[in-house]
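assembly run, all chains below
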Amino acid sequence: MRVRSAVVVLGAALALAVTGTLWAAGPLNVITTTEDLAAIAREVGGDKVKVESLSRGYQDPHFVEAKPSFVLKLNKADLLIAVGRELEIGWLPPLVTQSRNSKIQLGGDGYLDASLTARILEVPTGQITRAMGDVHPLGNPHYWLDPENGKRIAKEIEAKLSALDRANAAYFAQREEDFEKRLSAAEKGWQATMAPYKGTKVVTYHRSWPNFAERFGLEVIGYVEPRPGIPPSPSHTFDVIQEMKRQNVKIILVEPYFDLKTPNSIGRETGAKVLEMPPSVGGEKEVTDYFKLFDYDVKLLVDAIKQTRSS
Amino acid sequence: MPPGAAGAGGPSGPLPVYGNVGASKVFNPDIAVIGDFLGAIGKNDSERATPSLELHEAETSFQAIVDPYARADFFLTFSNDEVGVEEGFVTFTSLPGNFLVKVGKMRASFGKVNQMHNHVMPWTDRPIVTDNLVGGEDGIDDAGISLSRLFPNELLFLEATAEVYRGESNIFRAPERGDLTWVGRLRGYRDLTESTNLDFGGSFAQGHNDVAGPGFKTRLFGADIAFRYRPLRRAIYRRLILRTELMWSRKELEAGPVKAFGAYVSGEYQFAQRWFAGVRLDRSDRADDAALVDKGASVLLTYWPSEFSQIRGQYRHTRYAEDIKANELLFQVQFSIGAHGAHTF
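ok done. output:
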């Protein structure tokens, strides 16, 4: 009886296995962890890919919930593109394990860590401990905020898409080249807009902006968070206010998923302007692609700097 | 001059820094230790009273990818001078047909609480229904094989799991090799909006129970449902989880079968980045005598200094079946070092 029931279970399992593996042809199904990667994948993949991001741009990418509905999306993915550098360590690994998709497992042909050739800043040297807060041992994962890294990500994606879909390799190569050209032209514009304000000092909530600051000549002199992932404390806030007054800092950048209470009170004390600046595509309604992300952020910054200088 | 002293030759200069790992260490698994310190104040004359202060458990985890086809997870627990393998299993991640197979010792997929490690629970204790009907803290935790399949569809996440165990857990005891424990679970999940979702399941377990002699079985049914709210823009500040689990037990004793029922209802609300408030109501018959009913109510407050430590207080009122009343303040400090893999939702 027991042996028979075991046979029935196994038989049913096999029957399901056979019916479950019906392959769907058509465009490559690409799932990205963030909307920034999705935007770049769309630029490169064009109409030969179907791209969807798991997280939204107004969401803290460190703290995405590993919802079972994401398992369904990953189950059908031909390619998973992750930011890497342990940004998604808290939620992506169990989703990939449960996805029942051998292609996108770590090391699989359909898994791409977009950070491999990017310029990564703030890689810790020497001993690191959690006394430093939620540090990223592999460097700052917010590297997509430099358009030069956007080009590197696009190249990685192009190589991967071409490997998965050789018939369209030329198409991907042509689109990647075109994206790079347009991005270079746009970057010149952003650089020119920002040039008069090179060296402007800012305070940011989280360490999301080192690559952006490096590219566009901002100087980040402090953070609202005492340490990454640790909420603001009164003593640290006091120190930040003193330092901002001493260095005459008039801009505070806050990612859209953080509470504005502390930044606003720092702003009141120092006369600095608090900017809700999206670090990702989708962070604001009008930021619908990778170009608009920089269009939006650069305009927001420049307008604010002008205002603080004239007042 | 002793070897190693300055001027004695040999290696000098600073110690090698962390991160300068040799090739052999690259393949070491992620290792973490989680301490679970518990305390209790107040009166409890029942036999379930917990100690005033204890390091209830030190959970050590070792997790890594085995090869292109599998990953392995070990959770060793040290508690009150006992060492145990809470879980140690391999997961085959690259099977066809949307299957996932786990082989080893593991917490069975019966309901929600039975699958949870101590450190992920929203309380300092386990619900009374777990103690009365599902084997308490260790629960159905046994050596076996788990086969689960995903049924992809547009409407909802649907997963069916079938498991077979040796029959060596707190409630299932196999006197003979063939007296296996069977566990089945069907789980559904659906996003209602981007911030809210519904998670529900039905579970079944059957095996030989702890009564000596052949033919004494226990059969368990469970139903669970959870509603979650977490706004994406404020995910680190706000969340609400409402959950209930209902369980029915049918246990065969020498005097005949006993049918027992138990349930809990709980809610947890995060009201600031580091603060959570919770409540739980308990009621459960006892598996051996359904006329004995235990009831309880708890309120909780949890504080997170960081993601890696947690301080919790729980005021618990319990009315045990023997007409013993207990009012207790339970408190807990949990702390984690190392790299502990993320848990499933």
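The domain at 30-338 of chain B is CATH 2.40.160.10 (Porin).

The CA atoms of residues 216 and 252 of chain B lie 5 Å apart.

not gonna interpret more than that til we talk
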